Amino acid sequence: MFSNPLPRRDFIRATLTGGAVVAAAGAGLLRSDSAMAGDVPGWPAKPFEDKTLSSAMMDSVGKTSVAPSPKVKLTAPTIAENGGAVPVTVEIDFPMTADDYIDAVYLFVDHNPSPLVSKYQFTPESGQAYFQERIKMAKTDHIRVIAKSSKGVLMASTPKEVKVTIGGCGG
Amino acid sequence: MNLTRRDFLQMAGIAGAAGFFGPGAIASAWGADGDPYEISDYGNVTLLHMTDSHAQLLPVWWREPDTNIGLGSARDQPPHLCGKWMLEYYGIPMKTKDAHAFSCLDYTDLAHKYGKVGGYAHIHSLVNRFRQARPNKTLLLDGGDTWQGSATSLWTKGEDMVGAQNLLGVDDFVGHWEFTYGQERVQDLIKNKLKANFLAQNVFSSTWNELVFKPYVIHEISGRKIAVIGQAFPFTPIANPRYLTPDWVFSIHPGHMQKMVDECRQTHKADAVVVLSHNGADVDMKMASQVQGIDIILGGHTHDIMGPKPFRVGKTIIINTSTNGKVLARFDLDVGKGKINGFKFYYLPVFSNLIKADPKMAAYVDSVRTPFKTKLAEPIAVTESLLYRRDNFNGTFDQLLCNALMDEMDCEAAFSPGFRWGYCKLPGETITMEDVMGQTAITYPQVTVNEYTGAEIKNIMEQVADNIFNKDPYYQQGGDMMRVGNIQYTFNPDALIYHRISNMHIGGKPVSSSSKKKYKMAGWAPVVAPVEGKAVWDVFAHWLKDKKTVRVDKLELPRLTRNMENNHGIAEPKTYGL
């Protein structure tokens, strides 16, 4: 019964349903000024090129401060096992109906060289605004998520500190 | 004076009482307390919990720390109580055998009086006695760190301990140091040798995020369903080498824990939900505040004394059950439909002189040791001081180890990891090769030499300090502060990262944060990548043999800042300049 747990199915559902993932740049993996990304029509180059959190937020969601909402669930480890691949899960508790749904979800790392790490776009057919990804973090920092509904309402996660530390010395 | 079981019997005038384990047969031998292992019948389910034996098949000396600082809401709360503060909190009279088991006070004197603790043959006797008194009602749960900590466990890659667990009849088991044998070895032992269920709701495959192990098991006892959910040490790939478990990711996963609790309660109609945890006490407490529906957390990892009264967070009961086989915890539960109606709790120190060794287990232990006997018994040196490791800062055993590393590797300073395992030696005892291994038996034992600037040394120490003293338990890895050789510093545990350490000196000379001067430093247990190097036990043994007799006159403790005055986690404030 435990050999076939849910996560993979969740993942497959999230990626196959309704073309959920439209634009995603893993920081350090896909550089926004690279030919791969920059040449894609409609690529939102500017916010991905911004070097500070406030400018990246301003250029992506149009605000530098968004109130946290319990609807935006961000799961990440408190201490990174591998700063090169920190697993992050985002789930927005929001009904995806034709007239009101989560349109876009932005993932930021405050002091990343380019703080906007990813942007995911959803449609009502996505079923749920949910994704998992691995991000790269060079040092201890905060991750934050902002979701935008189709009516333009912005909701943020509580910022989550992920510590990137030296190991050893456990009990 | 060393009171053996026979002495106790003789003192009470009932020498040779054959029915030692018969109910009440020996009550008078224990004085006013009665036989501490005689427990009256209650309820319909018994849980026995042992944890963090660190592969000590034989009884050992185990001294509680004199320093285990709690900060913020954890300040002056269990388990951050030492010395008299521990005894006052639980109302235990000084110098009694429980006082000896639960605090560091008068350690050497009382150790001579009350003897060694633990030992699998002695634990086995107790477990059998309880099982016989409560047939078909008893579960034995092992909280992990069972396969590591001794020479024989290292040399058999954990197999001697799996045999002991099987003989003991462990029902469920979780892991931490077990993983340091590498993921293939762990899977091999679990699939082919271990009889117990190996549980972990928080270990996932790194590719697909699938559970690697069964997250829980449902036991049916007295017509009730008892769910046991396993929680592995969440920071294994950080505290220990990640390359040993490259395909597994860990972390705490309170959300997934909630899902597992709900699944046990709703899908499986569990009447009681128990978490067998290797989180460590502070992490367990925070998890209990976030996850609803856990009745009991049986905790380990931090090796804490959290009895004789259990701790509560909301509706969840939390314990931590020491280490090295020192304590066997017992819950007698009255489990009704969908809930626990009542419980009785017993936190039982395993005094090996007062418990007859189980002959089967004794024979098994002897059989696994026989091939290595000569090597284990090799005398290395004699100690004139009490040697111990467990403490927030340098223990005496680690002081010797740091001194050995500096001398043997020709270094001006040394680091040693803040492990919480490693048993004691009393003044006058011979340190054998087995004892050297008892401080060092790990799968990545290489000694390293590095050149660091003062700023780099401080940075390393600050990062380790934050893994211990961060006020949010979810950022704590357990373990103690790294041990230092020839480094002096002032320390404020309550500050933020990069602000705890000040006034750092090496060899008595101030260390400038801007200086480019490099210091040659020795260390061991590298976690980043496999390296070549001498094994630490060889380096340590070589130095000890050379010395023949050792003593610790100077323990390199930091000076603590004034805000640590009256912290109940400090038994001897004067040693920190307070």
TrEMBL record, chain A:
<feature type="domain" description="Ig-like SoxY">
    <location>
        <begin position="61"/>
        <end position="169"/>
    </location>
</feature>
<dbReference type="GO" id="GO:0016491">
    <property type="term" value="F:oxidoreductase activity"/>
</dbReference>
<dbReference type="InterPro" id="IPR038162">
    <property type="entry name" value="SoxY_sf"/>
</dbReference>
<protein>
    <submittedName>
        <fullName>Thiosulfate oxidation carrier protein SoxY</fullName>
    </submittedName>
</protein>
<dbReference type="InterPro" id="IPR006311">
    <property type="entry name" value="TAT_signal"/>
</dbReference>
<dbReference type="InterPro" id="IPR036073">
    <property type="entry name" value="Desulfoferrodoxin_Fe-bd_dom_sf"/>
</dbReference>
<dbReference type="InterPro" id="IPR016568">
    <property type="entry name" value="Sulphur_oxidation_SoxY"/>
</dbReference>
<dbReference type="InterPro" id="IPR032711">
    <property type="entry name" value="SoxY"/>
</dbReference>
<dbReference type="Pfam" id="PF13501">
    <property type="entry name" value="SoxY"/>
</dbReference>
<dbReference type="GO" id="GO:0005506">
    <property type="term" value="F:iron ion binding"/>
</dbReference>
Automatic annotation (TrEMBL), chain B:
<dbReference type="GO" id="GO:0000166">
    <property type="term" value="F:nucleotide binding"/>
</dbReference>
<dbReference type="InterPro" id="IPR036907">
    <property type="entry name" value="5'-Nucleotdase_C_sf"/>
</dbReference>
<dbReference type="GO" id="GO:0030288">
    <property type="term" value="C:outer membrane-bounded periplasmic space"/>
</dbReference>
<comment type="similarity">
    <text>Belongs to the 5'-nucleotidase family.</text>
</comment>
<dbReference type="InterPro" id="IPR041829">
    <property type="entry name" value="SoxB_N"/>
</dbReference>
<dbReference type="InterPro" id="IPR006179">
    <property type="entry name" value="5_nucleotidase/apyrase"/>
</dbReference>
<dbReference type="GO" id="GO:0016787">
    <property type="term" value="F:hydrolase activity"/>
</dbReference>
<dbReference type="InterPro" id="IPR030998">
    <property type="entry name" value="Thiosulf_SoxB"/>
</dbReference>
<feature type="domain" description="5'-Nucleotidase C-terminal">
    <location>
        <begin position="394"/>
        <end position="523"/>
    </location>
</feature>
<dbReference type="InterPro" id="IPR006311">
    <property type="entry name" value="TAT_signal"/>
</dbReference>
<dbReference type="GO" id="GO:0009166">
    <property type="term" value="P:nucleotide catabolic process"/>
</dbReference>
<dbReference type="InterPro" id="IPR008334">
    <property type="entry name" value="5'-Nucleotdase_C"/>
</dbReference>
<keyword id="KW-0378">Hydrolase</keyword>
<protein>
    <submittedName>
        <fullName>Thiosulfohydrolase SoxB</fullName>
    </submittedName>
</protein>
<dbReference type="InterPro" id="IPR019546">
    <property type="entry name" value="TAT_signal_bac_arc"/>
</dbReference>
<keyword id="KW-0547">Nucleotide-binding</keyword>
<dbReference type="InterPro" id="IPR029052">
    <property type="entry name" value="Metallo-depent_PP-like"/>
</dbReference>
<dbReference type="Pfam" id="PF02872">
    <property type="entry name" value="5_nucleotid_C"/>
</dbReference>
